[in-house]
Amino acid sequence: MLILRAVCYVIGLGLLIFTLYYNSYATQFQSWETTRAELHAVSGFRVSREIAASENESNYGHVSFSFSVDGKRYIGYRVMPLQDVFLPTEKVIGLTPGHIRISYNPEKPEESFIFADKPTEQMKILALIGMLLVFIGYFVPPMLSRMVDYVMHPPTRVDADYMD
Q1: What is the C-alpha to C-alpha distance for residues 108 and 58, in angstroms, rounded to an integer?
Q2: Which residue among 61, 69, 138, 163 is least crowded, i.e. fewest CB within 10 A of its CB?
């Protein structure tokens, strides 16, 4: 039970710390430069269950875009920060190949997103999972321990005869 508790604490607290770190990191996206880019490919995004079932698509799609900064060409593949946690359909439903505006890190242009917004929904999901794991680590092992102890060592029944 101690191992379960430790694993839940480590993963849960790790997710909470990561979420706090990423929250401060994401504030820099507002100061990123924007430029015109060419969106080459958009594929694999689930628009509806029917389309996904017929075309074997998933929620995790792929994009490919290219842009130039100071005469050097870069290729980007990310729609938004933390897209692997959750990618809102409304962010990708209107993407079609052609000219788009993207945001990129002026210090490292290889870091780029189509939508460089603060990933609020994704951070909420990570924080909720982290808190849930800490909660599980705190409450579940003691309850399981008591249940196992009860099953392994059931209370003895004392027969009392009150009919003397």
Answers
A1: 30
A2: 163
Tokens describing residue 45: 């995004």
- Beta strand spans in 20-144 (E): 33-43, 62-69, 72-76, 98-104, 112-113
Closest CA to 134 of 32, 4, 24, 44: 4
Q: Are 150 and 24 in contact (CB under 8 A)?
A: no
Q: What is the pLDDT of residue 74?
A: 95
Greater confidence (88 vs 135) lies with 135
Distances in Å between the alpha carbon of 162 and those of 56, 155, 156, 158, 159? 72, 21, 18, 12, 9
For 133-144, what is each residue's pLDDT tens digit? 999 988 887 887
Q: Domain-by-domain residue ranges, the chain? A: 1-30+118-150, 33-115
